[in-house]
Design brief:
Length: 1029
Amino acid sequence: MSVPDYMQCAEDHQTLLVVVQPIGIVPEESFFRIYKRISAVSQVNVRDSQRVLYIRYRHHYPPENNEWGDFQTHRKVVGLITITDCSSAKDWPQTFEKFHVQKEMYGSTLYDSRLFVFGLQGEIAEQPRTDVAFYPSYDECESVEKRIEDFIESLFIVLESKRLDRATDKSGDKIPLLCVPFEKKDFVGLDTDSRHYKKRCQGRMRKHVGDLCLQAGMLQDSLVHYHMAVELLRSVNDFLWLGAALEGLCSASVIYHYPGGTGGKVGSRRAQGGSLSAEAGNRHRPGALTSNGINADTSAEIGRAKNCLSPEDIIDKYKEAISYYGKYKNAGVIELEACVKAVRVLAIQKRSMEASEFLQNAVYINLRQLSEEEKIQRYSILSELYERIGFHRKSAFFKRIAAMQCAAPSIPEPGWRACYKLLLETLPGYSLSLDPKDFSKGTHRGWAAVQMRLLHELVYASRRMGNPALSVRHLSFLLQTMLDFLSDQEKKDVTQSLESYTAKCPGTMEFITLPDGLKLPPVPFTKLPIVRSVKLLNLPTSLRPHKIKSLLGQNVSTKSPFIYSPIIAHSRGEERTKKIDFQWVQGDVCEVQLMVYNPMPFELRVENMGLLTTGVEFESLPAALSLPAESGLYPVTLVGVPQTTGQITINGYHTSVFGVFSDCLLDNLPGVKTNGCTVEVIPALPRLQISTSLPRSAHTLQPSSGDEISTSVSVQLYNGETQQLIIKLENIGTEPLETLEVTAKTVNTKEKLYGDFLSWKLEDTLSQFPLKPGKIATFVVNIKVKLDFSCQENLLQDLNDDGISVSGLPLSSPFRQVVKPRVEAKPVNPQESSKGGDFSHVKTLEAILNFKYSGGPGHIEGYYRNLSLGLHVEVEPSVFFTRVSTLPATSTRQCHLLLDVFNSTEHELTISARNNEDLILHAGECQRMAIQVDKFNFESFPEPPADGTQYANAKQLEEERQQAKGLEINSKLDIWEASVEGVLNQLVLEHLQLAPLQWGDITCGIFPTVIDTRITSFFSSPCKSLFCI
């Protein structure tokens, strides 16, 4: 026997072998449809008997194996069923002749045969025949199963007659010597009358009768015959047949102990088929075993138990039988099949280590030169058996060998599809899954080197199959999951191969369905690049939406009153779905920052990188980036535009790397830090852009409140000068600008301002509203600087009284106390007084103009935006009043006010006073001018309240009264645009005041006055300026 049956199991010893074959040209689909119906009748309760016959069907069986039918009767073909197509009566004789030829192939062992003819109708079909059945078509053959049952009953009749004939033959002289094919030449010339020969004949016949009893459903009788055969054959050292007797004894014992079978699915079907006849168990004769292994006859059960081997003895006898088979070179197939049967029994007994010893022995059994198909079958069955005993990696090893045999070079047409299918089946044994999610959980399982080799073989097999998409998927999986185990050169090789494959078939995120129904999940490149953190960015300061305070209470969420609650779960998923405390705006570009890392030893190009979102319609704006080799953390900003309002969740990002498109979800990225991925998108708001008539400032304003300034402008002015700032407001958004509020505040200055620093008329601008997208409105701001430079003594030229009599006490101004007398011969040199490089006399004013605007759907929901303009003003001194005194006039209600005026600029100035001639001052020049003014009364000053709560102390009250007097002087003398602070003394104040009717205590102090310089040009010399007093 040369062809092993790797599917055999111990319970096959009780089956009758029936071959089902086609004759002539029969459609394969039609043949297997009938074959399936025939093979469904696998066990039959014999009529008028309590026995059950088990049938084993084969559609292909080597005739040379049939020659071993005497050695083990379950190998003998006892039934033949042929299926043929015959459409006309003239073809019938030829068809029937083919049937006879087919019978002659197994003629020596056949008990009975049948011919099923499909398509023939007429007179021939109507003739009653026992061995031929006619059916009009493959669809009209309802009686197939009934004819098969009748056919099996006929087999039983012949089997029973043979059993009785052999069992009742007691004459040793007439017992023939049963032989296997290779023994016949060895027994030529032997002494047939010897005691040794007769015992050999008796022992072999006892073993043969035991096989017949087992097939006939007489389990107890078979056990008895097997025991007798073992004793007889052992006495004559007939080892080959002794091994067969021991194997028969093991098979009968296995059938007793394991009625469900040991052959896996086949055994299960047999057990299920046995339940078809529920009454069969009650009608069994004593000594017969039911299909489920239960017998109502206790005495028979006891007798069977005596002869039956225990589960441990079964394995020992199998070992002994296999050792006997091993003595014969031509019994390699028998030995191999016995090993397989023993392994199936050990698998049920869960004795894996012993089973592996049997399998290891089966691997080294030397058979004849096997064909490639037989090798594939052998390695596949070994793999299956190793799988059954729990040796998964060993199973995968043999299955991989079987896969390689499918594509062996000696095969003219390699079976790449079969190779690929077998390779897929090896994956679990190597702890390999085709789902990339399984590789993101904890540590790596399995041998990475073997796994990479297997994945490379899958790539090659799929390419040879002509399925480039499958090759790309497996190569992508290799790169994604085995990246940490690839060397630098292997990374380059794999990526080059991947790029060459994707040039013809780009990688996608679609599932790939294989012909057998297996679905390969997509493989996103979450490691190319590796993402360490994801952060949603707030909009720029000028575009951030703000909620009107009166509407804030509508959306305030109710929070728990507890500081901590153990019920709250803090999972990573909840952190990602938590809402962020800022908002995005519909229609505006929003940003998400990723910190990425390139693990490859070469530059990594990432194309089409964008965001994956849910909840809101979102237009992602893809980006392309190039990361240097092993770049370390590298910031990447992804942008997009939300098109609708609501809650938007950033689920991940998509990329295109090496031609493979990937959708990378944050939930599948281990160790990614995020500040939350859900943000609210509010309705659209207009966008305001401002441009001014002043140049941009190089100074960066640092407001104390922490507000950011979108843009800053700067200007240089002389003290007292006024200049217009023209601001163009352009609506660059898509929504109309409907409302505008402007506010200003001075920042980062300790200087005291006099008058309004910034002033405007908003009504002129609002008249141009609503401002449609793309339109421009103009807004004018007046900048007026009035500061006190009274302490800047380094700006003053040394002055001399020149014999002029000045009344009053010494000036109380700090700078006046340190002024030195001018030397007679010292000329006034304006250039020396204002040498370049000394800017300590320049004072700085900084202010912020805040534009609060809104419009569109966002305005309806109560949202607005702020846009801030920074203003940096550098103020230089213009005119100083160095000395103030008074002279009596001719009228008691008037007096002369004497002012020493100093020009601290580099330009020529003109000083104008009411009813006086203009005074021209050159740069750095100081002159005296007299002004006739009316005296006046000081009207009202703050008085201390009765409860004393308004002012903290007497000093504060005094300061308030002094400031009130200063304001009174400014108003009465109409000195509204000049600074004389610090130059008024007690005597001057008395000369300016009308004689009172009642005198009281008046405290004199320092009073502010303001002067306005209107300078035509700062850059032409000389420059005319006008001072109004």
